[in-house]
């Protein structure tokens, strides 16, 4: 079993640690680095995983998972470059950052796999997309996919699609949370107690997600099955169309894709 080091245990780094532990990986096969000692101590207390220096992470781990904000990548790669061993596999979770950036900054030939995961890793329901860098072999990709499949589903995509993936499934959970939040507000508007509105919407979301995952029906059919002739749902759909919700989603996801491209461009030499 490989040892995995998470470099930058913030939101997604913690989700990965938590998901891997939850899937049965022992804490002794994990470690992480963090900038803030209080945050590091809190994570060790919560998960029993050791906080280490970047140097120790590079020595101890076969898989180095970079999970810092794209804006923080340069100092981390500068620190990592002289420490990295010939057998290290680098995995980037960072939005927008191309594998070529890592390949330029790290020793020649370092294998890099770019991944776009999402936070449902916390409940072993992540959607992760993986792409091989120039020096990553199919075996490297299989290693990374095996780790990620213990915390959710994995798909391999060409790296050219990663900005779109980032906008769709990387950020995707936020759109669903936003929708749920707005629907709970609607319940409040209609006079329901908040706790009741929350329960109604969260369980409806869980049920709808399960139907989407388990049935062979297209989402359009699932929606049509709810929409009775001259009933309530069609009145709501008319308002959604009138307010351009579909167009808003297309524009929103396009804007997220554009930001991912921009984050990568910020590191062009
Ligand atoms: N959140 C998400 O849903 C997803 C995030 N990602 C990607 O994951 C990366 C992290 O995102 P997210 O977890 O949201 O961000 P966070 O800011 O929550 O996590 C990054 C963590 O890394 C720390 N850090 C920064 N530099 C270093 C360093 N040199 N050594 C050790 N720790 C360091 C940060 O400290 P400090 O607090 O001081 O900044 C922070 O705690 C991003 O690149 C993002 O694009 C990908 C998919 C989903
Ligand atoms: O918002 C972000 O930039 C990160 C990447 C995908 C999800 N969260």
UniProtKB/TrEMBL annotation:
Q: What is its EC number?
A: 1.5.1.2
Specify which residues bind NADP(+) according to the UniProt entry for this protein: 67-70
* Keyword annotations of the record: Amino-acid biosynthesis, Cytoplasm, NADP, Oxidoreductase, Proline biosynthesis
Matching InterPro entries: 6-PGluconate_DH-like_C_sf, NAD(P)-bd_dom_sf, P5C_Rdtase_cat_N, P5CR-like_CS, P5CR_dimer, Pyrroline-COOH_reductase
Q: Name one GO biological process term.
A: L-proline biosynthetic process
Give all residue intervals belonging to the Pyrroline-5-carboxylate reductase dimerisation domain: 159-263
Catalysed reaction equations from the record = L-proline + NAD(+) = (S)-1-pyrroline-5-carboxylate + NADH + 2 H(+); L-proline + NADP(+) = (S)-1-pyrroline-5-carboxylate + NADPH + 2 H(+)
State one molecular function term (GO): pyrroline-5-carboxylate reductase activity
Looking at the record's lineage, which domain of life comes first?
A: Bacteria
Task: Tell me the enzyme class.
Answer: oxidoreductase
Domain Pyrroline-5-carboxylate reductase catalytic N-terminal, first and last residues per copy: 3-96
Where it sits in the cell: the answer is:
Cytoplasm
Which pathway does UniProt place it in? Amino-acid biosynthesis; L-proline biosynthesis; L-proline from L-glutamate 5-semialdehyde: step 1/1
Question: What Gene Ontology terms describe where this protein resides (cellular component)?
Answer: cytoplasm
Q: What does this protein do?
A: Catalyzes the reduction of 1-pyrroline-5-carboxylate (PCA) to L-proline.
Q: Which family does it belong to?
A: Belongs to the pyrroline-5-carboxylate reductase family.
Q: What is this protein called?
A: Pyrroline-5-carboxylate reductase
């Amino acid at each position: 079993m490989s040892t995995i080091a998470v470099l930058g245990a913030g939101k997604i780094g913690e989700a990965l640690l938590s998901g891997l532990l939850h899937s049965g990986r022992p804490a002794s096969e994990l470690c992480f680095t963090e900038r803030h000692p209080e945050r590091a101590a809190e994570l060790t207390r919560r998960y029993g995983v050791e906080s280490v220096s970047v140097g120790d992470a590079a020595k101890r781990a076969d898989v180095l998972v970079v999970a810092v904000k794209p804006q923080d990548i340069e100092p981390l790669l500068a620190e990592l470059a002289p420490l990295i061993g010939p057998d290290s596999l680098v995995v980037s979770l960072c939005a927008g950052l191309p594998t070529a950036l890592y390949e330029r900054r790290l020793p020649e030939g370092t294998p890099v796999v770019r991944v776009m995961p999402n936070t449902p890793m916390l409940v072993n329901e992540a959607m992760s997309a993986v792409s091989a860098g120039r020096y990553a072999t199919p075996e490297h990709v299989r290693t990374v996919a095996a780790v990620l499949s213990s915390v959710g589903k994995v798909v391999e995509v060409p790296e050219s699609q990663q900005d779109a993936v980032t906008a769709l499934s990387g950020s995707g959970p936020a759109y669903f949370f936003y929708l749920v939040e707005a629907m709970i507000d609607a319940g409040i508007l209609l006079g329901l107690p908040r706790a009741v509105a929350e329960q109604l919407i969260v369980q409806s979301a869980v049920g709808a997600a399960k139907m989407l995952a388990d049935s062979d029906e297209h989402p359009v059919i699932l929606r049509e099955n709810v929409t009775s002739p001259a009933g309530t749902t069609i009145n709501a759909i008319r308002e959604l169309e009138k307010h351009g919700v579909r167009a808003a989603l297309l524009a929103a996801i396009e804007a997220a894709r554009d930001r991912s491209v921009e984050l990568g461009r910020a590191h062009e030499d």
